[in-house]
Amino acid sequence: MAAGIVLPGIGGSGADHWQSHWEAADPTLRRFQPGDWDRPDLDNWQAALDTAIARSQEPPVLVAHSLSCLLVAHAGERLSGRIAGAFLVAVPDTQAPAFPAAAAGFRHPPHRPLPFPALVLASTDDPFGSLDHARQRAHAWGAGLVTVGALGHINAASGLGPWQDGRMLLDAFRAGLRS
């Protein structure tokens, strides 16, 4: 199974976030390390992503949450042939009032198909991006879309713990990349 790189959103993913649970349970998953989780800089985050990919023995699957979904979209063309696919959870709407000012450099992600398989997971009540927005992004990026129900921003505040349903979706996505 392809290794995975965990890409948290702004602020990183704390101990109660599903990404942290998945990393603790799966040695094939490792986290990328940008210079600053709280003051995200697109160029720095792209360089950190490039470093993490370069350390992989084979093209990895990116497991992105929130702001890092936009990182993947911005880096899309640069990632072609270097990753197996992208699992994109809770894509934020950069035009929404809740979008953090600190992440302004991530605004205006490309609206073209990603050059690798991708799956967008969306909640029906995400305060950072509507289901309609997720549908539009998935369509523009040529990605599949799975609606996971009312899970808020699909983060630690959602109380998901290890989020087994999400993990099953990731495993199915990864398995589909091999066929």
Describe the protein:
The chain is α/β, with parallel strands linked by helices and 179 residues long. It is 34% helix and 15% strand. It has a six-stranded parallel sheet, with helices on both faces. β3 (61-65), α3 and β4 form a beta-alpha-beta unit. It is globular and about 40 Å long. The mean pLDDT is 96.
Key features?
single chain; 179 residues; alpha/beta; six-stranded parallel β-sheet; 34% helix; 15% strand
Quick overview of this protein structure:
With 179 residues, this protein is of the alpha/beta class. Helices cover 34% and strands 15% of the residues. The longest helix has 15 residues, at 164-178.
Question: What is the topology?
Answer:
Layout: E1 4-7, H1 18-25, E2 29-31, H2 42-54, E3 61-65, H3 67-79, E4 85-89, E5 118-122, H4 131-141, E6 144-147, H5 164-178
Parallel strand pairs: 1-2, 1-3, 3-4, 4-5, 5-6
Helix pairs in contact: 2-3
Order of adjacent strands in the largest pleated sheet: 2-1-3-4-5-6
The biggest beta sheet is recorded as: 6 strands, parallel
How big a fraction of the residues is strand?
5-15%
Q: Work out the number of β strands.
A: 6
Task: Name the helicity range.
Answer: 25-40%
Whole-angstrom Rg: 14 Å
User: What integer is the average pLDDT?
Assistant: 96
| Number of helices, where a helix is a run of at least 4 consecutive DSSP H or I residues | 5
Q: Which class do the helix and strand fractions yield?
A: alpha/beta
Q: Span from first to last CA?
A: 11 Å
